[in-house]
Amino acid sequence: MTNTDNSTAASSARRPAFRRVLLKASGEALMGAQNYGVDVG
Question: Do 37 and 31 contact (CB within 8 A), yes or no?
Fold first, then answer.
């Protein structure tokens, strides 16, 4: 095993810093060109 293989194995064995990600999207960004509601198309 080379040094590169060791670092790759170690990085894949580490746990991620966060379990979840929260994405906050504003209602205005979802409206599109409509006056109200969600633009689905």
Answer: yes
Q: Cite the DSSP H helix spans in 1-41.
A: 3-13, 27-31
DSSP annotation of 39:
-
3-state SS class at 22: coil
d(CA 18, CA 15): 9
Whether pTM exceeds 0.70: no
Integer Cα distance of 39 and 25 in angstroms: 13
Q: Convert the pLDDT of each residue in 4-22 to its tens digit.
A: 555 555 566 889 899 999 9
